[in-house]
Design a protein that fits this description.
Elements lengths: L6 H5 L41 E4 L5 E5 L1 H9 L3 E5 L5 E5 L10 E6 L4 E8 L3 E8 L4 H19 L18 H18 L6 E5 L14 H18 L1 E5 L1 H11 L16 H12 L3 E3 L3 E6 L34 E5 L2 E9 L3 E6 L6 E6 L5 E5 L2 E6 L5 E4 L5
Parallel strand pairs: 1-4, 5-8, 7-11, 8-9
Antiparallel strand pairs: 1-2, 3-4, 5-6, 6-7, 10-18, 11-17, 12-13, 12-16, 13-14, 14-15
Helix pairs in contact: 4-5, 6-7
Length: about 400
């Protein structure tokens, strides 16, 4: 009988990277995409263009990725153990010392205001791609918190106005920008734990404050850019390119970009990160073996009570990280063979269950906690998208 800790599900069912029915997955969760007949300039796809499994050393240092077949043999031979990262990426960790010689790997980043694209590229092929959904609604939450605090102070006591003695510290950044910068850097930090990245290529978004006076709020973006660039310089060698240069490189590879920024595909944002990294490292064929959607799990912070009264002048509780019983918000549970994410709860009724994807839609809010098996807690939501079997670009165009 499966224990309530659910470790077996965490290591197998939960983190399957692709749908087995799509024909691209294996029973052990590794991915081996089939080669495509469409290649640029008549080039043939070799075996090294398939998905590569990240490898880390005994002490956690990232090494060069390996093929799924070799990773499987090392696990079966007892020289490595399979693990899952916070990004939902399967990797292996060596159990004995091995050589630490690595090749050049480049990180491509296409920043944005709501969505971003990221890619890890080597001379052998594209290793990993993803789309980042940045946190949103931070400014509205802060404004509502300010209103509630002022209303509460007004109900409890009155005091004379104070002079403005609050000075912002040096390097202060708006909370809305800080949330985006922190999540962006968190994704990159997790990627550099898996791949020996030596260089980062970033599309530099610029704004002319002198000619375009309407961009008064862009200054906070500039502060966020500086914080991002400073951190990337600590980790890698940083190179910035302009947007017009990115468009030229994309046209040179014959890659297409979607006009819908919300589209959950490699063609919305990740394609720019891919072509930037491929152009820098000299990769000619662009094939996508793995693609993820990453999003931060945002919970309603605890409040003393709801903002509005209910019938009878009652103010119910609001927010918090705890749910009913042993469950917390963000817990992944198994119920009747399906995976769900735990939300809030209603006193005497049950817990709320949400969909196990980046949408996090509420399915029901009347579930008995005894009917659920807790697996693990998830603070970063990820959704693997079935990898493309086609070459999305190449020098000379796609034939």
């Amino acid at each position: 009988m499966q224990s309530r800790s659910g470790e077996g599900y965490k290591n197998g069912l939960v983190h399957t990277q692709v749908n087995p029915s799509s024909g691209f997955g294996r029973s052990d969760g590794l991915t081996e995409p089939k080669p495509s007949a469409a290649t640029p300039m008549g080039a043939k796809l070799r075996k090294e263009h398939e998905y590569r499994v990240p490898v880390v050393s005994v002490d956690g240092k990232p090494l060069m990725p390996t093929t799924p077949a070799r990773a499987r043999k090392m696990i079966e031979g007892g020289v490595a153990v399979g693990k899952w990262s916070k990004l939902g990426i399967f990797y292996i960790q060596m159990l004995r010392p091995v050589g630490e010689k690595t090749q050049e790997i480049v990180l491509g980043l296409d920043p944005g205001s709501e969505y971003e694209g990221v890619a890890v590229v080597s001379k052998e092929g594209v290793l990993q791609t993803g789309m980042i959904i940045l946190p949103r609604g931070i400014a509205k939450k802060i404004e509502r918190r300010r209103m509630m605090r002022r209303a509460r102070r007004g109900r409890k006591w009155r005091r004379p106005c104070r002079f403005d003695n609050r000075r912002r510290p040096e390097g202060w950044i708006a909370p809305s920008q800080k949330a985006k910068v922190d999540f962006r850097l968190k994704i990159i930090e997790e990627l550099k734990k898996l791949y020996p990245i030596a260089k980062a290529i970033v599309e530099d978004v610029r704004f002319n404050h002198y000619r375009k006076r309407w961009g008064k709020h862009f200054s906070t973006v500039e502060i966020g850019k500086k914080r991002t660039y400073d951190k990337l310089k600590e980790w890698f060698q940083l190179k910035l390119i302009e947007g017009i240069e990115t468009a030229r490189i994309r046209a040179e590879y014959g890659a297409k970009k979607s006009s819908d920024k919300r589209e959950k595909s490699v063609f919305s944002h990740a394609i720019d990160a891919i072509v930037m990294g491929a152009n820098e490292i000299g990769l000619k064929i662009l094939r996508i073996p793995s693609f993820f959607i990453w999003r931060r799990y945002q919970i309603a912070r605890r409040q003393l009570h709801k903002f509005q009264f209910e019938a009878g002048g009652i103010r119910r509780r609001e927010g918090g990280s705890k749910s009913m019983g042993i469950f917390k918000k963000g817990d992944i549970v198994l119920r009747r063979g399906d995976l769900y994410r735990v939300g809030g709860y209603s006193e005497g009724i049950g817990i709320s269950l949400h969909s196990f994807d980046t949408e996090n839609r509420r399915i029901t809010q009347r579930v008995n906690p005894k009917d659920c098996i807790r697996l693990f807690n998830q603070r970063m939501i990820y959704e693997p998208i079935s990898p493309s079997t086609k070459v999305v670009g190449g020098i000379g165009g796609v034939s």
